[in-house]
Amino acid sequence: MLKKSLNIGLLALLGSPWMSAAAPTPDFDAAYDAFEQALHTGENVQQHAQTAYEVGLSTFGETSPAVAKLAINYANAMAPSPTNAQRRATLYKQALTILEQQPNSDPLSLIDPLMGIAKSADKAHTVEKAIERAIDIAKQQQKPKLVADLKVDGAEIYFRRLDFDKGRAAVVYLNEAEAYYQAHIADDTVEMINVTMLLGAVDKARGRRHTAIERFNKVVNIFDDNFSFDHPAELQAHSQLVALYEQEGESEQATKHCVAIAKMRPWAKNQEQTPLYRTPPRYPAIAVRQRREGWVQMEFTVNESGFVEDISVLDSDGSAAFERAAVNAVKQWRYAPKFKNNQAVKAKTSVQLDFKIG
To answer: SS3 of 284, please?
Structure first.
C-alpha cells in the first residue's frame, strides 16, 4: 500500500508546477515502466527502483521533487537491513531536503521522508526528532486520523529498534491512537486491528495477561464476525492466545485456538512442526557443574487437541539427564493439530533440543 501511494504521488508530481523545465524522456519512461512492472510482479524491485532513480536524476535534475519521490521509492525498495541502513537514510534525507526547498510546498509531503529517516537513522535522537516532526506536521495540517496513524507507525519503529529506550513513549502513542480510532473508525479496520495487536503485545510483555487475552480475543472476534478469509493477524492472535491461556493454566481454552490455527495453516509435509507454546528445558544441575553440553532428538505424537503424547528419544549426546529434561519440557508444549478431511487427527513430528552453556 505504501509503495502504491508513493507511485501515484510521483505520477501526480510529474504533471505538477513543481516540475523542472525538463520533460520526461523515453529513457525515463522506460525505466519507470519497468519499476512499475517490478512492483506488480515483486521481482527485482530494488534494481528497477535504483535505475528509475538514477535516470530520473539525470533527466529532471537533483533539485526536482520528482527525484525526491524516486529517492523515496528507491529507499523503500531496499530491505531494511543494517547493510542498507546508511544508504536508505541518505536517500530519505535527500528527498526531505529537496521537498523542503520547494516554493509553496505541501507540508504533508515531508512526512514520508521523515518516517523513512526514523526507520533508517543510526542515532536515537534523529529517530525521535523525525517521528515527532512528522506528527507535528499532521497536527498543524489538522489531520487527526493521520496523527493517529503516525503515532502507531512511530510506536512500531520504537519497538523494533530496541536500542532506543522509548518504550514508554511508544505505549503513550498507541493509547492515544487507540482512543482516536475507537471514537472515529469501525472496529473491523486495519488500523484498529493493528493497534489492538500492538497493545496486546505490550500487555503480554508487561505480564498483564488478562488484558492481553481480552485484546487478542477482540482481534479474533473481529475476523470471525466480519471476514470470511484468513489473515496473518488472526493467525498471530490465535498463537498469542495459546501461550497466554497455557500460562494461565487454561489448557481447554488454549486448545480452541490450537484447533483454529490448524484449520488456517495445514501441516507441511516432511517438516518439523513449530510449537505454538513451548517451555524451555531446565538445564540439569549436574551438567552445569561439569560444563557439559549436548542434544536430544525426540519423536512424538501431536493429538487431536494439540497436546504432545507418546514421546520417544531417538538419539542423544552428553548425558541421560538431558533426555529427562528434554522429555519433561516437550510434555508441556502445544501444537496446532493436523487436519485431514476437515477432521483433527493424530500425527507424528520430531524435534531436537540443544543444551549449550553460554
So the answer is: coil
Q: What is the mean pLDDT of residues 90-112?
A: 95
Is 345 part of a structural domain of the chain?
yes
Segment 142-163 mean pLDDT: 91
Q: Is residue 132 part of a domain?
A: no
Q: Which three cell numbers stand for residue 335?
A: 501444537
- The pTM assigned to this predicted structure is 0.77
Please tell me the total number of residues recorded for the chain in this structure: 358
Full residue range of the structural domain in which residue 95 is found? 1-122
Domain boundary among 122, 144, 175: 122
Alpha-carbon distance of 22 to 57, in angstroms, equals: 11
Strands 343-345 and 338-340: antiparallel
Last residue of a domain, one of 122, 138, 168: 122
CA distance 208 to 165: 21
pLDDT on residue 47: 96
CA angle 7, 13, 18 (to 5 degrees): 155
Cα 163 from chain centroid (whole Å): 18
Count the Cβ atoms, other than its own, within 10 Å of residue 104. 6
In a domain, 29, yes or no: yes
Beta bridge partners of 301: 309, 348
Q: Do the domain assignments include residue 224?
A: no
The enclosing domain of 290 has a CATH number of 3.30.2420.10
- 195 contacts 150 by C-beta, under 8 angstroms: no
- Residue 28 one-letter amino acid: F
pLDDT band at 163 (very low <50, low <70, confident <90, very high): low
Whether the Cβ atoms of residue 298 and residue 314 lie closer than 8 Å to each other: yes
> Over the stretch 212-250, which tens digit does the pLDDT of each residue have?
999 999 999 999 888 877 788 999 999 999 999 999 999
Of 325, 269, 304, residue with least CA distance to 313: 325
How high does pLDDT run on average in the chain? 89
Task: Give 7-61 pLDDT, tens digit per residue.
Answer: 444 444 444 443 444 566 889 999 999 999 999 899 999 999 999 999 999 999 9
The tally of domains found in the chain comes to 2
